[in-house]
Task: structure prediction
Amino acid sequence: MAMIYLDHAATTPVCPEAAKAALEAMTGGFGNPSSQYPLGREAAKKREADRAVIANALGCTPGELIFTSCGTEGDNWAIRAAVELNRRKGNHILTTAIEHDAVLQPIKALEKEGFDVTYLKPDREGHIAPEEVREAVRSDTILVSMMLVNNELGTLLPVKAAHEAIREKGAPALLHTDAVQGFLKVPFTPKELGADLVTICGHKIRAPKGVGALYVRKELLSKIKPLLLGGGQENGLRPGTEPTAQIAAFAAAVTAWGPDFNERIRAVRDYAARTLTAIDGVTLIAKGEAPHILAVSLPDFSGQTLVEALGGQGVYVSSGSACHRGKPSHVFEAMPLPQKVKYGAIRLSFGPESTVEEVDQLARLVRHICEKKTLLF
Result:
């Protein structure tokens, strides 16, 4: 059986355009962009052209986009920078219980330092109610960090409502959103959301691992603390020689994301939802607004053993975020679901190359598991 890859929310295969751009940057335009001779100046010129491509897709100015190594770095930096900037204005942080660990862990560290943190929980479908956000924002809230698209459910979170609540309450809070799963998949711009800080990364859209970006609203560029100390790269905010090959690949992947991709992905995801939930023994957890993520459960089995059994047949899915490494997902745990449903949860996530034929092969395996009550094939 050929490999069936249904874990695009964890990472994506690198597209040919991105691989070609990276190779060209590594072999031809390999100069250090800080060097002042022609090879370096050409690398700097290409880096800025790539920055403009990504910024245009995000809906911001190139100067508001700072390159990072990944989404985790961007999330950690945004959270620490926002709290450092506002720490004399209040002590309250608002987030959700279903954020990626790249947000939850730095916020939990801040909680141990004495900050008051509110974690909003989702409903049965994985949504956070805008009214709950408005009620939770306080006059002493200094940071709201809320992901745009949940990485295990595909649900959209009410980021814009958080911005409106901050304004209504007169809170000093900065608004950060982890848009790693939303970038290119759902329409948004930082300005439309009212976000001050936005995290994105490349390997969720068919660029290589090792490159991401943090949007910083232009009014904050001169105020936030640098991530590191060193050279003057990235306007002194993120020193270190820029990974020009990864940046070139990131921009190429953005350009290669076709206008019909999301429609195609959604069609396969919706077909999977219909096909799998028609099988006796499969429960739908969430089919969110984003086009690429579907969460289901086989309550009679554990999610991790399902991942291993399907993987043995060449079908790759997950039991939650790749960062959990087999541990129960805190996202599913936060939902008001029967424990057996949480226990048997798996996430399917789709990309432009996914097909209904792959879904049919997955469905045959799942039907066998449910009918025979065994993971043996």
Notes: The chain has 13 helices and twelve strands. The first helix runs from residue 16 to 27. The radius of gyration is 21 Å.
